[in-house]
Structures are given as C-alpha cells and as structure tokens.
Design goal:
Blueprint (H helix, E strand, L loop, with lengths): L2 H23 L6 H18 L2
Helix pairs in contact: 1-2
Length: about 50
C-alpha cells in the first residue's frame, strides 16, 4: 500500500476525530467516554502520521 495513501487516511482520521470532539463539546450534557474516544483516536493517528 502506498505510503501517501496511508498518510491521507490518517489525516482524515485526525480531522474527523477533531470535528466529532468539537461537536460533542457543544452539547450541554457531555458524553465523556465518546469525547475521550475521539481524542485518543486523534492522538494515535497523529503519532502514526509523524512517526
């Protein structure tokens, strides 16, 4: 699998996780487990992206 394709996929994962985190933070009652999930996915994707 080409490296560029994997990097694009990781970049999209980071963007989607950041977007979902932002959307969940706007709710009056915060689903903390979902927030932590999206933040952790973004952290792992960034670590793979810059490794």
């Amino acid at each position: 699998m080409p490296v560029a394709l994997v990097q694009i996929a990781l970049f999209l994962i980071v963007i989607r996780s950041a977007y979902m985190t932002f959307q969940l933070f706007r709710r009056p009652r915060k689903p903390w487990l979902d927030l932590l999930h999206y933040v952790s996915v973004a952290i792992v994707a960034v670590s793979f992206l810059f490794h």
